[in-house]
Amino acid sequence: MKTRKILLVLALSLGVFATSCSNDDNEGETIIPLQGKYNLSQTGSIINGQEVLVNAPQNAEGCNRDYLELRLSNTAVIGDYNGSNCALTETTGTYVRSHNDLTLTIGALSSTSDIMNLTNKELKIKDKTTGIITVYTR
């Protein structure tokens, strides 16, 4: 009888634990890791309620695509390929993620964006000040 009571208490405890561990605590935040190297793919904005994106004009023709690398150390590296020889210029700064906000600080400039989409293959952000949407792909 004592064993049955222990098993019943254990079963009830596991049931309560399983129902209390839901994913609702995220408040819409994605759980995909943010760290990684992302290639600049598209830019755009919302016009008349429609998202309009074009291939990123920042990518120099004939060169590798510019990129954003977000490291575990909260270091942000922006890679820019430019010129006739596609020379790479890297600029280093920091980033902070707070829920679905991403703040990049490069030198004295800081910008905060909403993370619109974050998957294993894409990071889409929208600048809170300018409304510019930037799509990066892995």
TrEMBL record:
What sections of the protein cross the membrane? none
Annotated ranges, domain Lipocalin-like: 34-125
Source organism per UniProt: Flavobacterium hungaricum
Query: Domain of life, per the record?
Result: Bacteria
The cross-references to InterPro entries, in alphabetical order and at most eight, read: Lipocalin-like
Q: Which Pfam families match?
A: Lipocalin_4 (PF13648)
Q: Secretion signal: which residues?
A: 1-18
Q: Which UniProt keywords apply?
A: Signal
- Name of protein: Lipocalin-like domain-containing protein
Q: Does the keyword Signal apply?
A: yes
